[in-house]
Amino acid sequence: MEPRFSLLIDAENISPKYIKPILTEMSKYGKVTYKRIYGDWTNTSRAGWKNNILENSITPVQQFRYVEGKNASDAAMIIDAMDMLYTGQVEGFCLVSSDSDFTKLAERLREGGMMVIGIGEAKTPQALRSACDIFTVLETLMGDDEEEAENHNDTRNGDITIIGKKKIESDIIQIISENQNNNKKTGLAEVGNRLVKLYPDFDVRRYGYSLLSKFLETMPKLHLSTKNNNHVFVEIRENEDEKHKVRQFVKNYVKQAPKKGVSLGTLGRDLREEFKGFKVKDYGYTQFYNFVESIDDIEVIRLNEQMFARWKERG
Fold first, then answer.
1. Which residues form the HTH OST-type domain (predicted)?
2. What is the pLDDT of residues 199-210, one digit of tens each?
């Protein structure tokens, strides 16, 4: 049986834009049985969480702010975590916060035999990171903000939202990339299980197909192969000619830029205008600047809080 996790989110320290990447990340560790989010919901700054809470079936826990300037979520989240620890109904916890005040909680949960996954922003102190078995930076999960926005192409059928095929394709590519990093192939059954964890109402019949394999065969970036006693595996379809053209476009663009280079924002915008299907994850990267840095003769520098790509100087 797959391990069960409690997902506890500190709304005081985490933006609602991260909820989908968080749930995607947790789908690879096990089944999330508790999903709770803590904050002072009388505060209007928490309003952005409303739709995310409803759409993802997360239980909001009200915690009034008794002292100005103090995180209201701490006490309620810690008490619930300890209650869950003693019930023995989960094998692990995911603590979503950038607040070092949860360091002791993470340590105590580990002492209790729990696996502790921490997820927080890049500003998270090292103490909390070290207290977790695994810590993941939210900005890494998000990757390129523009790319994420393009991937959420949901459609509606009456009153029912159907996840767009481009978003599903992107999710599958991420699953395959994670497995490749661990020298593991991605089976068709695993893809189906992970999609159901991400989207409990996922059903290929809603897209007009009776088999998951037939549905995936319609996705241009995926390829299905049969190996090892007729086991079906899902792979990323490589288009080396397209990738060469993308890299050459970036090289020519940067080479013709002023000496200080071109901002990554401008470069990314014009690259996506030229190559409509460009996604940095298809190249094995989560951040656009890492992809640009991987191209020969180009370096990425920071100037006045902005990142620029420029041609490397020789000699």
1. 164-238, 242-313
2. 866 888 788 888
Reported as a pLDDT band with limits 50, 70 and 90, residue 146 is very low
| Closest C-alpha among 285, 291, 14, 281 to residue 150 | 281
Separation between Cα atoms, residue 114 and residue 107, nearest integer Å: 10
Euclidean distance between CA atoms 199 and 46, whole angstroms: 24
Q: Report the run of H or E that residue 72 belongs to, with start and end.
A: none
**pLDDT over 90 at 117, yes or no:** yes
Q: CA–CA separation, 209 vs 207, rounded Å?
A: 6
With 0-12 / 13-18 / 19 or more C-beta atoms within 10 angstroms meaning exposed / middle / buried, residue 122 is exposed
Mean pLDDT to the nearest integer, 147-175: 69
Q: How far apart are CA 7 and CA 259, in angstroms?
A: 48
DSSP structure class, residue 287: S
Q: pTM to 2 decimals?
A: 0.63
CATH of 240-311, one of 1.10.10.10, 3.30.1240.10, 1.20.1050.10, 3.20.20.150: 1.10.10.10
Question: 145-236 is classed in which CATH architecture?
Answer: 2-Layer Sandwich (3.30)
C-beta separation of 218 from 164 below 8 A: no
